[in-house]
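COURSE: Structural Biology Practicum
ASSIGNMENT: Worksheet 4, Part C
STUDENT ID: 0417
INSTRUCTIONS: Below are two proteins. For each, the amino acid sequence is given first, followed by its structure token string. Answer the questions at the end about the second protein only.

PROTEIN I
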Amino acid sequence: MAKQINVFFVTLVLLLGVCVLFFIFDAEYLSKKIHWMIPVIAGILLAFTLLFLFRTSFSDPGILPRATGAEALFNDRGADNSVDLSQNVTFRNPPRTKDVVVNGETVKLKYCFTCKIFRPPRASHCSMCDNCIERFDHHCPWVGNCVGKRNYRYFYLMIVTITLLCIYILAFSIAHIVMLSQDEDNTLISAMSDTPASVIEALIAFFAVWSVLGLAGFHSYLAGTNQTTNEEIKGSWAQRHGEVVRNPYTTNNCCSNFTKILCGPSYNSLLRLTEDKNKEKRDMERVKEDIERLLKEQNSGAQGHWTNSIPNGAPVDPTDLQTQLRSPTPPP
């Protein structure tokens, strides 16, 4: 989640506030007058909306790890292996782009001077999160996170469920007011004064439904054509100078594009893989230090139960050496 999370809490308060009002002031009346499943369905929609909201907000959207010092220096020298890294040499900036071919179309890889990497296709640097995001769609302040390769499906399902929830609450809050106005020959004004909470719910849901409904429709179009918001705004696959630019990622089939984006495999976090790789590297360095210390003590004639168990010139197993080094007592 990004540092600017104030709007996310506004989203959460509005969502929970409207639903709490509905369950307190409308659910009991509607379950008696219409059907007991009405509050149950509302609860199911709310549960799925919250699930997808939290998955979108608190998951890694596809952050690309920044280059290490050696990798950044390698990129800065333009991959010239003839340059001695131990020397203080001033390098020119690397080229800003590289051309790669994706499904027969030439795609430019742009160099990020913040992360010191060439971003893969469809990636972009988010100024709010200050990270390069794989398959960057946009930064959404309402969820307090970027929307990218790893959480786009949850974002799409969230806006679909929240649209259904808004329509549901709007319809049944209005139904509550209308049914009250018909009881005992009440007027509409008197019914609204009897249940002001329903009026508040209807107003909030009415203004919210237009934005989320339009958003759901827009992202349905993007998913059906396998585009991102960033690509659509920039016109990455639009016609340029009379030349048609083909989207190399689309299958030219709406259903298969939906299936690929929403039902495709889950991707591992590159940050987690980097952490595991660094941990493995640190473990190997510790093993190497243990081996060097063992061999040094052997060569200096140090006594120990393990010194006589390794013949001179025999191959050394790092695991056996670690076990012998950490053995608390010598074998009998």
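PROTEIN II
(use this one for the questions)
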Amino acid sequence: MNFLGDWWPYLLLIAAGVLPNEVWRMLGIVASRGLDDESELIIWVRAIATATLTGVVSKIVVFAPGALGAVPLAVRLAAVAAGLAAFFVMRQSVFAGLAAGVAAILAGIWATGGLGSP
């Protein structure tokens, strides 16, 4: 009898993927106590993190992997524009930006007749 049954891949994912990352996150929280949020070092780190995330998202949008590659580039770019517009219009609400971007890409897929070939 297999104790884990069909759950072993999920447990492996948690053990190998989530737990190692959580250790570093907790160490970061402990190490950052007492740091001034407005110090030049923290502002610089925040800028580097934002630029890195922007680069990764831009690469995924332009050079889309998998099923996203079947969505026309114009639809992907329009979804990004809609998400950014909603983000700023709704007073920098991440949820509003994400919801608008997802809605825009789904509407674009529907309007273009579904997923095309990449």
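ANSWER KEY EXCERPT:
Q1: Residues 59-112 form one domain.
Q2: DSSP finds four helices and no strands in the chain.
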